[in-house]
Amino acid sequence: LLGTRYFFPYVNGRYTGYTLYVNESYANTKGFEINLNVNPDKYFSGSVTYTYSVAKGSASSEEENYPGTQASTQLYYLDFDQTHVFNAIGSFTIPEGEGPELFGGFPLANMDFNLIFKANSGYPYTAGGRDAGLVIKNALREPAQQSFDLLFGKELKVFGTMRVRLFAEVLNLLNTKNIVYVYRDSGSPDYTQGSFSLEYMRDPSNYGPPRSVRIGTSVKF
Predict the structure, then answer these.
(1) Are 119 and 143 contacting, i.e. CB atoms less than 8 angstroms apart?
(2) 3 Cα distance to chain centroid
(3) Cβ partners under 8 Å of residue 83, min gap 6
(4) What is the DSSP letter of 177?
(5) What SS3 class is residue 154?
(6) Burial status of residue 124 (CB atoms within 10 A of its CB: 0-12, 13-18, 19 or more)
(7) Which residues sit opposite 111 in a β-bridge?
(8) Confidence class of residue 114 from pLDDT cuts 50, 70 and 90?
(9) Quick one: which of 138, 16, 132, 137 has its CA closest to 70?
(10) pTM of the model
(11) pLDDT over 70 for what percent of the chain?
(12) Is 104 left (phi over 0), alpha (psi -120 to 50) or beta?
């Protein structure tokens, strides 16, 4: 990682300060990834991905050891360290001319349904607040996160070779309240020390997006 140093060269009879990025911090990332893809038939397919990694170093960014601060002499979990990441996708596709027949046609033909599950560990953070005492940097963890997404669509033929796809996405299908930020003094997304109002402490941005629905279309020529 890069670090920063401040210099004062003597130029044209006066000292001029400037910041220079130098290679002085250290970081390493270790881990492995497992991928599994399955296609049992023309209707079903799926994939599973799991990643395990550990990122440690003496600084999480090039400006952490800015002049005036003391560089770390110990390796700690970096701000972007995420131990476990898991993704699973299941797909069901109905080809053209197949599916339930209704009035001599196949209304569900050329449709696809996709269910996506995502889960990951929380990021590390350092305890803070007036009662924190002696703490180890990034020794605590934010809560893990998980969500389901549902995507489905249907393709229609129009005007010869032109194809129109109608699709919908339901993100965070179960409306899970994922915590993305906690106050360093309490470890809670809803409470922090000090004389703050409930409206201030219960910041909605401390949680991930709620359930949302997107509807769209695409055209192929």
Answers:
(1) no
(2) 26
(3) 52, 53, 54, 121
(4) -
(5) strand
(6) buried
(7) 94, 154
(8) very high
(9) 137
(10) 0.80
(11) 83
(12) left
